[in-house]
């Protein structure tokens, strides 16, 4: 059992080589009722993950040795733990790349520790950290696929589990709950970021593209998740509860 499961205090791993930034964030998270550990690079991150389980990872892009992008790819290959990336101010390409490889959200430097804490709380809520919020949610089915909001799992028509990030799962859940409706990017951000000033609109496009790669027979010619010109997106499948 993880420390967070036993104590009900979310456990956060901060992967940041600037110790003062990491320490300030760790103190703020601790004051907010969480536990926080600090890793200075990828090797430290791996060491911490071997001896503890974390509910969320804060990952800086610029790290000595293996950079944050590479670490994010490695994490996504083996876990769906929410990842919040820290990127340089004005480096939009970093944010897009981070989202493309599976990060759930990002914050640009310099940042407010309180803003990061708010983002972390939002991601934990979206990952259904509180069991009570999941009670009574029944699986949704479309075209042989099954989406289980309580277990936060997606299974393909063969029954195999398909890995999805927190953001991808939340977007697909919104689509399944609103089949046949045109949803704008702003509506999708509002549904998946709990009212926070979430990532730039293009992040929705990135996540939708990743969802298509997983649920569409031909992602280049999507049938289930269509783009509506000047509108947003529409989920065309029939959804059964």
Automatic annotation (TrEMBL):
Keywords: Activator, Cytoplasm, DNA-binding, Phosphoprotein, Transcription, Transcription regulation, Two-component regulatory system
Entry GO terms, CC: cytosol; protein-DNA complex
Major subcellular site: cytoplasm
DNA-binding region: 137-237
Database matches in PROSITE patterns: OMPR_PHOB, RESPONSE_REGULATORY
Molecular-function annotations in GO: phosphorelay response regulator activity; transcription cis-regulatory region binding
Domain of life assignment: Bacteria
Entry keyword annotation includes Secreted: no
SMART domains listed in its UniProt record: REC (SM00448), Trans_reg_C (SM00862)
One Pfam family matching this protein: Trans_reg_C
Modified residues (4-aspartylphosphate): 60
Limits of the OmpR/PhoB-type domain: 137-237
Keyword Phosphoprotein among record annotations: yes
Sequence ranges assigned to domain Response regulatory in this UniProt record: 11-124
Protein's name according to its UniProt entry: Regulatory protein VirG
Organism: Aureimonas glaciei
């Amino acid at each position: 059992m993880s420390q967070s499961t036993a104590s009900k205090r979310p456990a956060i791993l901060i992967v940041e080589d600037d110790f003062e930034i990491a320490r300030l964030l760790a103190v703020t998270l601790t004051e907010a009722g969480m536990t926080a550990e600090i890793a200075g690079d990828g090797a430290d991150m791996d060491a911490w993950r071997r001896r503890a389980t974390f509910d969320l990872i804060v990952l800086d892009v610029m790290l000595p040795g293996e950079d944050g992008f590479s670490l994010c790819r490695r994490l996504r290959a083996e876990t769906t733990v929410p990842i919040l990336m820290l990127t340089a101010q004005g480096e939009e390409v970093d944010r897009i790349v981070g989202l493309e490889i599976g990060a759930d959200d990002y914050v640009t430097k310099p940042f407010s520790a309180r803003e990061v804490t708010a983002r972390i709380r939002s991601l934990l809520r979206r990952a259904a950290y509180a069991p009570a919020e999941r009670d009574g949610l029944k699986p949704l089915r479309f075209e042989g696929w099954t989406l289980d909001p309580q277990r936060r799992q997606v299974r393909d028509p063969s029954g195999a589990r398909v890995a999805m990030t927190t953001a991808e799962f939340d977007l697909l859940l919104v689509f399944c709950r609103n089949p046949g409706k045109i949803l704008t990017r702003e509506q999708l951000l509002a549904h998946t970021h709990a009212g926070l000033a979430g990532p730039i609109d293009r992040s929705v496009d990135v996540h939708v593209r990743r969802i298509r790669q997983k649920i569409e027979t031909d992602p280049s010619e999507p049938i289930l998740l269509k783009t509506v010109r000047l509108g947003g997106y529409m989920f065309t499948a029939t959804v059964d509860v």
